[in-house]
Design goal:
single chain, alpha+beta, six-stranded mixed beta barrel, three-stranded antiparallel β-sheet, elongated
Length: about 425
Amino acid sequence: MLRIYYKQAIEMLKQNKFISAIAVIGTALAIMMIMAIIVSDNIKIISLGAEPNRYRTYYVTRAVERDTVKGSWGSGLVSYERYRDYLADLQTPEYTTVTSWSSVSVSREGHSETLNLGMRTTGADYWKIYSFRFVEGKPWGEEEVQSGVKQVILSESTAREVFKGEKALGQEVLLNSVPYHVVAIVEDVSKIYDMANSDLWIPYSSIDGYQQRGVGTLLYILKNNEDLPALDREIREAEKRYDAQHENKVLTFRGPAKHADYRLSEQASENERAIEIIRVARRKSLFIFLILLLVPAINLSGLSLSRMRKRTEEIGVRKAFGAKRHVILIQVLFENLITSLLGGVIGLLLSYGIIYRMKHWLLGVSEDSFIPFNALISWPVLLSVVVVCILLNLLSAGIPAYRASRMNIVNSLTQNDK
């Protein structure tokens, strides 16, 4: 039966080429706008590429301390002391690490050229959380982090830029005039992976005076997401231990926040406020999605209604020979779905072009950043296209199809004579 519907849908497209072309183009443009947003959001939040554990990664981004006597408060990165004493040895996470990003001056002994590059500090478990392809060498472990050795891992492009084709592994490079030993080279990581991307990586403990600095963002990898309440309890208990040991002080750690929300949660001074910010952001996203879906659906419904009017005699004849209303309704919706899917494929391809052209605005990365193919094509993206096509089909063709299926036989047969 579906094969018959499909053949008839193709014939309908051929018979009304102009209207069919307008319908496909209109659908494609609608899908393009919607999918540009969906694909860019997916790139930011789903587990893929260098960040395969996003779905079970939770972040603590800041610490807020209040003085209950003075009424003052201060907010900043979690200090090394607080990390070491309260958050480093939680029992719930499978892996725990810290990371931060900053710029650094890179040079070589005896060379005048100096480069300003991005540097990421990490702990040992960082290399278990993220997926890197090591071209040469291997990452440091917990022993090296504890000893504070000055080791550095370079991306391939950084190694080429700094060493000009020479073998980089085993050589020394100056980071802010401090010598570091190159222990590994990794393939370049796209900037869309904001927690994995960098030009070079060093142990956080290799920086002089790191004990007096903030360690950056704390990363907790759970064995499964059902452990989140247990992780939250441990963090809240850590806050209570701190408060008990520091008179007139109340400490709040910002988190744990899941990957999709942690950037938004950084804007808040309280966890409750962070939750509200996230809710508002989601409502805005839902509103934008509905507008992008409803406006083209209303426009396309006019085309669907025009096509239905041309088929009223056919529908009347079919009903005269005993065709059920629901059968007619399903067939009409299926035929329109073919148009929607065709427009959906075109719209998805167009959305990729939009993302590449507007990557700075949609993804927050520089124009020269590359986007891996597997970040664009994924099961969530393909499923989203199908769902959006079905919704657009129901909204644009649902009412005309329902009215056509409910029309009585006499009116159907005489509609085109009026």
